[in-house]
Structures are given as C-alpha cells and as structure tokens.
Amino acid sequence: MQLADLYTAQAREALPPLWGPSLETDGEPPLSLAYGLADPALFPQEELVDTTAKILASHLNDALNYAPVAPALTTLIAERLHHEGVQAHEDEILVAYGSSQILGLLPRVLIEPGDTVLVEAPTFMGAVRQFKRAGAQMIGLPVDAHGLDVEALATTLEALKRKNLRPKFLYTIPTFQNPAGVTLSLERRQRIVELAATYGVLVVEDDAYVDLRFRGEPLPPMASLDQEGWVLRVGTFSKILAPGLRVGWAHGPRELIARLQMFKLEGASSPFVTHLVAGFSANGRLEQHIADLCAHYAIKCATMSQALRHQLPEAPFIEPDGGFFIWLQLPQGVQASQLAPVAIEHGVEILPGTRCYTDGSGEAYIRLAFSELPDNQIETAIRRLSTAIKVVQRPTEGG
Ligand SMILES: Cc1ncc(COP(=O)(O)O)c(C=O)c1O
C-alpha cells in the first residue's frame, strides 16, 4: 500500500510549483534574473518594525484575534481606486493572501472542466496554471508593442460565438505586462471593454505592476472605462511594498466579490498584516514609497537596457516604461531552453520564454527581471548572459 494511492486524480497529475530555487551549482550561486522578486534593499525595514510596535500597542485584539481585515486597508484600496477613476464601495473589495489567492479562487467560481478561458500569449503562468488545474481550455491571444491584439480578440470571440461557446473570462495584464513589459493602449482598453459587454465576457484585469511607472502618463484601468460591470480588477501590495506580506485584492461586481468570498473558507486574510500594511501606508507614506521605488527600478531598468544594447546588439527588446521585466528576443537560432542551462553554467539564471506560454512556444524569447539584483550586478549578469549566448551559438557557426 502506498500513500500515493490516496491521492485524488488531480493530485496525481499535479506538477510542482514553477517557482523554485536556482539549480544547484558547485560554486557561487548564479545571479538570478529569472523571477520577479523585489530588491530587498528597498524594503522599508525600520518603518515596518515601528509600525508593528504601534499596531500591537493600539490594535492588539483586532490584529491578533480572529478578526476581519483592517477596515483602514479596505478604505486605502478604495481611495487608491478612486484616484484611478474607479468608484469602489467597500463591499466590492476582497482582500486575499496575495493576488495569487484571488486568481486561485476565480476558477472555483467560474470554471467547469472544458470551459474556455482567453489569455495573453505570452502571459503570467502562475495565473494560467490555476485556471488549467480547474480544467479550463486556454486560448492564447497575441501581444504586440501596444499590448493584447484586440482584433485577434474580436475575431476569436466571434468564432467562439459561432460555435455557441462563451468564454468564461479574458485574463489580461494590461500595464507593464508580465513578461512582455508592454502596456495596452487607451484605444485597445476601450475596445476590450466594448467587446466584453457585447459578448458577455468577464475581463480579469491584473494590474500587479501599474504603480511602478518610470515614464509617461498613467492610463485609465479598464475597470474605470467599464459601465456595465464586466471587469474584475486584481491588485497586489507585493510589488509596491513586499511580496512576503502576501496582501492582494480584487475589486469588481458586488455579486462576484461575494461569490469569491464564499470560497475563501479560511476567513479574513491575516488581520495583523492588513493592519501593518494600512498603518505603514497612512498619511501618503505608501505613495511616497512608491515614488522612491519607481526612481530605483527606473535606474535598474535603464542599466539593464544599456547593458543589453551594448553586449547583445543582435537581441531586440522593447524597453518598458515600468514594471519588473525585459522580454528579450534571442539572436536567430538560439533556443531559450537550450540557453537556460548554459546560462546557469556561466553564472546567470534566466526564465526561458517557454515558461510564459500555454502551448510550449516561446523558444525565441527569455524574460529578464531587473527588479531584484543590485544595480552593480546587473551589468555582470548581462555580460554572463552574452557569453552564454555566444557559447550556444558557437556549434552552429560555419555550418
Ligand atoms: C501579473 C502578476 N499577477 C499576480 C502576481 C502574484 O502576485 P502576489 O504576490 O500578489 O500573489 C504576479 C507575481 O509575480 C504577477 O506577475
């Protein structure tokens, strides 16, 4: 008798998390550009310690007992939404253990095995895996320099309608997309909102990176353009404060929020941490912190962009206006899955583009996160990457 005999069919088929530590190496660990981690030097450590002491002094019971989410946090989220042109009532907001939890609750409410879900190609596989696990059939829609290709979306919706298929939702990352770094134009945002209303499709607008803008003017979220209640906006404090706090949220139609809440059976997400986030953020402190983060991440992005242009002129990319990632097109003939282990041998870890598509494509791309490494290591990492690419190219040279 084996323990594994007790597993559900789903558990037997489950794969380990995509996220994981760098491959073991004998010597120094590689410099990692693979994951969207925050730069630990940018955590407001002392202020979080001070705020913790204040919370324990002033909100001991609310923070440490079984209790609801700190009301000040829901108010903060509503105020920030209001600032973006979204009128949010507090019962239309659900706070969760990271936006990942929201993305995991969504299929519980919306997906039956075989249902269709539309996603960008490439996209954030952390979300897609949650949809797939629920049995969703994915349709990947192309992304270009201006974000999701809305004509492809329109054509797909029409083709599905002809087959009597109504997709459950479109999952999109409109701003500083993960992994492509591009931002959906205003015209396309408007068109998506129109299409959602026409075809009765929910838009899941995952704006994890929206606040990390280095250049240009913010664009209105689709949630602010939607008059008919077809947009669920998903956000997180991971990128603007600290991922380890695990605080994310969703705002959307009241009935959908209530339905998502019904599956959040463990109760309110960490009351203590929600007090901590609200306490830190009070009096404009969060906005000031975000401005500091943007200044730092802008330098990292510029450093990586410059190093890439210098070291790898034959590998094109679109320099993003914000976020954490550069999506690099590899020189002709270099395959991402072949490059990744060679890069590790040369002391740098990258994410192969294949990890960002639902159908195994993406061999021509890699995702490089400039967020985590200190500025002075970014150039070294790119130099190592350039060497690894040359090593992969070598056997094909001259024949
Ligand atoms: C687009 C996108 N959505 C959601 C998440 C998950 O964030 P959280 O830490 O809030 O679970 C990430 C994390 O990398 C992300 O890139």
Automatic annotation (TrEMBL):
<keyword id="KW-0808">Transferase</keyword>
<keyword id="KW-0663">Pyridoxal phosphate</keyword>
<dbReference type="InterPro" id="IPR015421">
    <property type="entry name" value="PyrdxlP-dep_Trfase_major"/>
</dbReference>
<feature type="domain" description="Aminotransferase class I/classII large">
    <location>
        <begin position="60"/>
        <end position="385"/>
    </location>
</feature>
<dbReference type="InterPro" id="IPR004839">
    <property type="entry name" value="Aminotransferase_I/II_large"/>
</dbReference>
<comment type="similarity">
    <text>Belongs to the class-I pyridoxal-phosphate-dependent aminotransferase family.</text>
</comment>
<dbReference type="GO" id="GO:0008483">
    <property type="term" value="F:transaminase activity"/>
</dbReference>
<dbReference type="GO" id="GO:0030170">
    <property type="term" value="F:pyridoxal phosphate binding"/>
</dbReference>
<protein>
    <submittedName>
        <fullName>Aminotransferase</fullName>
    </submittedName>
</protein>
<dbReference type="Pfam" id="PF00155">
    <property type="entry name" value="Aminotran_1_2"/>
</dbReference>
<dbReference type="InterPro" id="IPR050859">
    <property type="entry name" value="Class-I_PLP-dep_aminotransf"/>
</dbReference>
<dbReference type="GO" id="GO:1901605">
    <property type="term" value="P:alpha-amino acid metabolic process"/>
</dbReference>
<dbReference type="InterPro" id="IPR015424">
    <property type="entry name" value="PyrdxlP-dep_Trfase"/>
</dbReference>
<comment type="subunit">
    <text>Homodimer.</text>
</comment>
<dbReference type="InterPro" id="IPR015422">
    <property type="entry name" value="PyrdxlP-dep_Trfase_small"/>
</dbReference>
<keyword id="KW-0032">Aminotransferase</keyword>
